């Protein structure tokens, strides 16, 4: 699937649409989900044109891949979730119901979460 540079997260990355930012570094931008499904629901997106996890792990450099996962761990720690626990999730492709075609990792926490899949 080709990258659609008009997707909503591309526009957020370019600053064309605002977001409630929680973290940014050279590799990622992280912000609160507009429709939170848990008391803490953060989206972490790589800086770059990656549709999915397959696209990212095929095309991104090792530092970019490490940077994304380091940022996820750092953000969860910054949010105070290490003790209580949290879940990360990345929908990828149609069976997963991925809505926005720019790779994003969800971080859910702040309450005891429900079963993993419904
Ligand atoms: P997906 O189903 O693709 O894994 O998740 C997409 C997520 O992006 C959803 O949880 C949805 O609420 C969130 N989202 C969609 N549009 C926006 C937006 O404009 N701003 C923010 N902050 N989140 C969005």
Task: Explain what the structure shows.
The chain is an alpha+beta fold. The mean pLDDT is 97. It has a 5-stranded antiparallel beta sheet with strand order 1-2-3-5-4. A hairpin with a 7-residue loop joins β2 (28-32) and β3. The chain has one domain (8-109): HIT family, subunit A (2-Layer Sandwich). The radius of gyration is 14 Å and the shape is globular. It has helices spanning 8-13, 53-59, 62-78, 81-84, and strands at 21-24, 28-32, 40-46, 86-89, 105-109. It contains 4 helices and 5 strands, in the order αβββαααββ. The longest helix is centred in the middle third of the chain and has 17 residues, at 62-78. Bound molecules: guanosine-5'-monophosphate.
